[in-house]
Amino acid sequence: MPIAPAPTPWAFPPQASWDPDDDLVALGADLEPGTLVAAYARGLFPMPVSLAGEEHLGWFSPVERGVLPLDGVRVSRSLRRSARDFEIRVDTAFDEVLAACGSPDRADGWITSDFVHAYGRLHRLGWAHSVEAWRDGRLAGGLYGVGIGGLFAGESMFHRETDASKVALLGLVELMRDHHAEHRLLDVQWQTPHLASLGVVRRPRAEYLEQLERTLRVPLPEALGLDDGSDGREAGPR
User: Model-level pTM greater than 0.85?
Assistant: First the structure.
């Protein structure tokens, strides 16, 4: 069961004040565990933002949210065959997954050292998790994200071998397909052409937030640290 972090001293803007045409909701605050847990429970996630030549911490809630329905995953025949060659593990190499996702060699990289430190802390408290694809005793690919109740908010993924990150995503879907599956929510932030090919759809912000409220009442999947069935928000700040 996740360890409750110290409550955040920050107050995020109320949903009614969010610009209906802008994914960016707020600037500032910090990456402390309590702030991160409070943000995800409100449908927000952080990313660096450059404005007028200055770097800021931005908090996003996409107007059109990328969501992967657990019953809508598209698995090609070749991917299904490839998946047989990998072993799925959870939280056995979180730091390595995080480092690979944040590699400075990635052209679209945004995971700074501050983010690496912050999510490492969140992992040690039981809120952030990695799903890993292993082959022949080596980490071939994986993903990491934040789990609160029935929500898994995916942050980033990487691969060192063909299909490894996709296989890790399929592994995560299987972990979430338990008797609470219809109430779970696999959030991938934005729909990209690559993610759309795997079944990711767009959900209007209001619809996503409405579902999130219900999802947070569902216990974590067993593989991510099954709790006692209480609302995931009870273990974190409000």
Answer: yes
| Spatial distance between the Cα atoms of 181 and 86, rounded to a whole number of angstroms | 24
Give the pair of three-digit tokens for residue 45.
């996630």
Task: Report the C-alpha gap between 225 and 126 in whole angstroms.
Answer: 8
CA–CA distance, 167 with 157 (Å, rounded to integer): 11
Q: Give the CATH architecture of domain 64-235.
A: 3-Layer(aba) Sandwich (3.40)
All CATH 3.40.630.70 domain ranges of the chain, comma separated, are 64-235
In this prediction, residue 220 has a pLDDT band, given cuts at 50, 70 and 90, of: confident
The 10s digit of each residue's pLDDT in 46-99 is: 999 988 889 999 999 999 999 999 999 999 999 999 999 999 999 999 999 999
Q: List CB contacts of 226: < 8 A, sequence separation 6 or more.
A: 1, 219, 220
- Give a three-class secondary structure readout of 143-172: EEEEEECCEEEEEEEEECCCCHHHHHHHHH
